[in-house]
Give the backbone structure.
Amino acid sequence: MRKNSIKNIRINGEVQKELSRIIREELKDPRIHPMTSVMEVEVAPDLKTCKAYISVLGSEEEGRDTIKGLKQAEGFIRRELAHTVNLRNTPQIRFMLDQSTEYGVTMSRLIDEIAAKEGRAATEDTDEDGFDEDEFDEDEFDEDEFEDEN
C-alpha cells in the first residue's frame, strides 16, 4: 500500500476520528487538557506505526503534560483502537505535539499589530472626511473636465 493511496487516506481519517473520541470520552487522566485535538494522523503503509499530531489549546506546559499523559495511556488507547477499528495490525502510536495552530495565532496577532500601526499612520494623513491630501494633486485635476463628464 502506498503512502498516499486512497486506502491509506481512509485509514488515517478513521484512526484520527477514533483517537479523538477515545481521548475525549474514554481517558480520565488529569494531565490531559480538556481542549486537546487530534490534528492529523499518519499511519504507515504497513500499519505498524502511527504518528498522531496533537494540539492543545493552553500553555506550553499543559501541552507537554498532555503528551506525557497520552504516552502513559498508549497501551489503553491502542487496545481501544483495536476494538473499534478493524485493521490487520493495530499501529504503535507516537504522539507529537502540533504547534501549527499556536504558530498561526501568533502570526495573525503580529499581522494585526502591524496593520493597526499602519492604520494609525494612514489615519493621521487623512482629514476627518477620509480625504488623503498627499494622494491628491491639484495640478492634475481639471474641474471643467470633471463637470463635462457629468
